[in-house]
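seq/struct pair 1
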Amino acid sequence: MSMLRIFDVSGSAASAQTQRLNVVASNVANADTVAGPDGQAYKARHVVFQSLLMGEATSTGVQVSQVVESDKEGRKVHDPNNQAADAQGYVTYSNVNPIEEMVDMISASRSYQNNVEVMNTAKGLLLKTLQLGQS
């Protein structure tokens, strides 16, 4: 594999992790939302990664193939005085688990950092190779 392909592979992974971070941010922002007028609360979303052949199939990157909604039930809280309460007095909140989202955010952030570090290391190696040729 060419040294320049490293930038394609790490760049695709960093881009995918950026999308993952955006989905996590949306989930965290909607963690305490209640069901809307349609009776449906916000559902947590998660990214699904897929291998991506690059160039002459000598290297493989990654891309986000889809963003899927969680099928878990939302949290129900008995609060008959709330405007969003149903006939039984329960308010349906989103099914987002903030702790899981924070773990996912840390994982995505670390993956992004690792890919940036790979690109920086490859850049340094290429610069050193050029400097060898100048001597």
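seq/struct pair 2
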Amino acid sequence: MSAARLVDRDPVIGAEELVAAMAPPPRFGDVRFGTYVPNPDEPSQAAAVAACSRFAERVATGGEKSLFKRVFGGKRAGGEDKPGLYLDGGFGVGKTHLLASIWHAVPGPAAYGTFVELTNLVGALGFREAVTRLSGHRLLAIDEFELDDPGDTMLVTRLLSELTDAGVHVAATSNTLPDKLGEGRFAADDFLREIQALSARFSVVRVDGPDYRHRGLPDAPAPLADAEIAGSAAAIPGSTVDDFDPLCRHLATLHPSRYGRLVDGVTAVHLRGVHALSGQDVALRVVAFADRLYDRAIPVVVSGEPVSALFTDEMLRGGYRKKYLRAVSRLVALSRDAAPLRTPGVG
């Protein structure tokens, strides 16, 4: 019996389900501030834990909508008057761990989602209905915050302005400082006022350090031969097997917010014929797909070229460089996770 294929799946997610699903993904379901292990060589990490903990406590104890602030424009004591906390840093330093820890520490209602999931929610519900649904929350946590096009800039600026004015606190992670959002991707200077207005609502916490996923660990396993892929999938029940190019074409037919549902219930993803990507649009879809695999801790097995070769040197020099490097980091970690699952002699 042949293995299941992702290209045969066409997941559909209703608007109500989108709202109900706004919680940390399985990989971050049990994380807390106490489970974050700061790198002793990077003082900013311990400082970030403390800052995030203080923010969560402030939201939990005083996160109700402040009539004083709305009516009289009052500020919180100690200069902590900004409704947002923004975790900035490289990939693999634990920003998502800290964001999920904030979410877990704040009594509900609280919502959590990636940036693309948030923009899709607005598209599914309509702007006004999304504001109505989210304005009743204490906290909105946004992972992988980025502005890749002018439409997103205008939409998110307006959305977060209305939510924070309504008393919602916002925590976000990104690889880009708030006032640099959109840089290298579109004519961000034309939207400078919107970007500056958005960044003014956040206090920035920097998280420095090397990628913890590869700290002291070996490189990813070498790709298998095409003929070995079927044996590996058979050794891991619940696996899928897809040829790389057809899968990339299938991803183009789905909104990225559906990629998580695409791989729900899958124990390992096998990809035949992996090679360097030639188009930026395809590469960005693969980044989003890799993020959802990582969220769900789904191991990846490939033939062809290694996952570290997915993005060309030109891509790695461009405006999406950090996204591509994050995807490589995560896919290498998932490739490493797959090795112990296969029976001896396979691969």
